[in-house]
Specification:
The chain has about 220 residues and is an all-alpha fold. It is about 70% helix and about 5% strand. The C terminus is likely disordered.
Amino acid sequence: MIADIVSLICILAGALLSVCAAIGLMRFPDLLSRMHAAAKPQILGLLLILLGAALQNPHWATVSSLIVIVLFQMGTTPVGVHMVGRAGYRTKHLRSSLLFRDDLADAVARAESRERAAAQERAEADEARDLADAQDSAEAQDRAGDQHRAADQDGAEAQDRAVVQDPTADRSRAEPRTDGDGDADGDGDAGAGARPTAGGSSPAVCLPEGQASEPDERG
């Protein structure tokens, strides 16, 4: 009978603390206040409810399971609440006027200064890398232009050497070949190999070298 009364009191007290935690989450003004409302009454209320359950069923299997649950809640809830509060402080989700003492102000200021210095160093490194890339690109373009100019100069020098070694070939390619009549293809009106004589009466036939002209029997 006494165990039943104590168990009932523990369960009711735990339920009341859970209701208080829910009201605190809804009514408290900032993150840190709500964090306290969610952590402390919730853990204490859970402990009272589990104690009432253990008094109703005092067996080793039930008590051992309840002890594991209590240890798990007491090990994880403080760590989770601490991380939530720290994240809320870093993101400024709080009211500074409600803080009685700020133990993290100096640490946060040092961390922010380090972050600003690191960001500035990264920006300077990126700017220096961009400048180096631009300089490398300009140098590559200059080298490519020098190579093209050197190749053009080598080609011109090769053509000049070819002209110096064989000037007639260049002139023969540049000027058309003409005969005595002024024809560019060498075919005059008198036929191939014929030139007019001094008297202008008949053309003189050019004979091959070494062959004498036969006397004209008619004349």
